[in-house]
């Protein structure tokens, strides 16, 4: 195995130990697609794929896992187990592990650090092969219990359904400014998140952290990992982003989605929920309206300071606007 130095990396609860920078000299198998040199030379990524099972504090095997599904998409599965940990797996359409995409997300999370992301505590092994990564479970800003049918913990304000976590909603102005600080920390590291919305924010003590870095990129090289269209959450994205999902991610994209996220956090309602309820629109129709230039109504924000902050972020992500710094 060739190495170009032995930096130290410590896992939670373990003493630091040397991790070789480079990948093994042997050629990867067909199932292990080669990674870019910068990612393959990451100590954390190398250790993630080469450390033996049970080396990390929260390594799991398929025999031990009894989980509950939190979410699923064409590219990933997210499961909760033991009400303490979250397992995420990145997959190809054929349900085969997308190793480059998984390695990319791990690399970005390591660069983001604990002040922006949740630490990776372990790996999940399926039939002896790595299948995903494990983090601690933290409550999401978007309270999934409050979406759809009425259920326990449901909150109403003037008869309107609220789907933001009750604690976040109660202190929404304070949490919005904590979110602004979080995004500034991430951007100061040269990282663009790529899919900012309340479902990708979690509560850590009294602060916020990002999750789901699958679409994240370094601002210095904003082309997505694979030359294909990015996966976007339509209601939070600008018309420009939705009309060209093949375009490289920019800081303006993050700023616009941040503005829409703050709008959701403050109102407690999904962006453009009035269209859904008033005109019985489906998601495709709402997306088409946004692509046609639909903008949110900020008059619903009754706090002038919050309204001005949201307006600044949305304007920074508007089409044909050169200045995107805040």
Automatic annotation (TrEMBL):
Please list the GO terms describing molecular function.
ATP binding; protein serine/threonine kinase activity
Segments forming domain Protein kinase = 62-326
Query: Which residue stretches belong to region Disordered?
Result: 1-39
Per its UniProt entry, which superkingdom is the organism in?
A: Eukaryota
Instruction: Indicate the segments annotated as coiled coil, or none if absent.
Output: none
Positions with biased composition (Low complexity): 22-39
**What keywords would UniProt list here?**
ATP-binding, Kinase, Nucleotide-binding, Serine/threonine-protein kinase, Transferase
Q: Which PANTHER family match?
A: SERINE/THREONINE-PROTEIN KINASE (PTHR24349)
Q: What is this protein called?
A: Kinase-like domain-containing protein
